[in-house]
Amino acid sequence: MTPLILQVEAYGKHFQLHEQNKLIPSSHNVSFSVRAGELTALIGPTGAGKSSVLKGIYRTYLPSAGRILYRDTLGHELDLALASEHQILELRRREIGFVTQFLHCLPRQATLDVVAQPLLALGVSRDEARQRAAELLSAMNLPERLWSVSPATFSGGERQRVNLARGFIAKPRLLLLDEPTASLDPATAERVIGLIEGLKSDGTAMLAIFHHPETTRRLADQVVELAPPPAVEELLKEIA
Amino acid sequence: MNKILEVRNLSKIYGPGCPLCLESTGPEADTNLCPHCGSVVAIHDVSFDLFEGEILGVMGESGSGKSTVVKNLYFDQAPSGGEAIFYDRDKQHDLFALNAAQQRWLRNHRFGMVYQNPHLGLNFNISAGGNIAERLLMSDLMDYGAIRERAKALLARTEVLLSRVDDLPRNFSGGMQQRVQIAKALATQPPLLFLDEVTTGLDLSVQARILDLILEIQQELKTAMVVVTHDLGVIRLLTGRAIVMKYGRVIESGLTDQILEDPQHAYTQRLVASAL
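Structure tokens for the assembled complex are given below, as produced in the milestone run.
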């Protein structure tokens, strides 16, 4: 068996909206693991809290319950739910990548620089980083005339390719993917699937949510089905 | 990554103060004015760490005490309590235990400040170039030619037209005054920079250019920054971590994306929900 990278134990997330005095359940009692060079896919109906699992691992959400055990390059085990902010930032910079459904990037920045950014943060020279960004963008079929402009005006599919290229470029140890092929045409989706397979064979561990069951079937080594979270009343009983 | 600044339990009270000040003020009490003695608890028990090359956001509405935090750290005011350690290469400075001369030395050599109001950061009676020269002189650069070259290079870096190096700041636009302030703050290449609402009140397009400039500088020079702002857009654009203040207290701190997407405190939730 390849090494274990991530082990999630009984992860839960709910939101406490103070203003409306409401509790919103999101993910509930989710457990699974992800290994190096393998892809674990999360499936389940809308509202089962799939994205909320990814965001909890990346700490964009503060987990409400459970443990998120991550084993870093040096073999140390760390609970991402409890790690310090600086530990998380360092892991985001060096080891953990996240391709979200929407592209968050600096406005007014050229696409090539948006994609090159994770490499720059690792200290790679600007020329080399841009060179690698250009290679990835052409592998994803993004027309070269778009490289020097900001993705702000791009179509959904173009943005998604920029987002993916930025997620792939630094070859993270753990990559979180939230519907990475949802708005791509079939030919481009096929190229992206090829790149994901390439990253897997290079040893990247992946946790992904795919729009199409077919993609899950092709890429996943493990499939984890999430059930919708319990109703608020039951959750309250559990928390109390 | 190394720590550059450690702030512990910083507090600043204006007025006589009384034993009831602390329990009668803060977010729970919904005021920073002590009803018993009339003192203003501007900040209380503010703690945070800043690492080299990192940008920390201090957010909150007017009167939350966020500017007071940086004014104390830049020695514009003396705090009522608390401590701050500045880690400078192999030295440690206990900021509020230093004497006035030592504090002035750090201000002139190792810290930089950009104020919302350019009158506070610039001398309006001398030219843009002169303002930068003043700071270089304070940091012991004495050669006239060298000073002038360095001033020009800094103004060019912050995109101030070189033909205006001898003009008075009062004849500059608001955005240009902020650029001169930034050039002045950077003159000594300080490892630590404080930015207090630097884009507030500027046109959106000017704001955007200034924010881009700040980010470029941060990437080039790896300057650590504390950015005070009420603007969530600035927080999102510039900072990696942030603290949220209300009535002088820190009510929430965390990674910036977490604060914006999963705010924990009722006040932060309202603040994020009211963003345009």
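The first helix of chain B runs from residue 66 to 73. Residues 23 and 29 of chain B are 8 Å apart (CA to CA). Further analysis is deferred to the final report.
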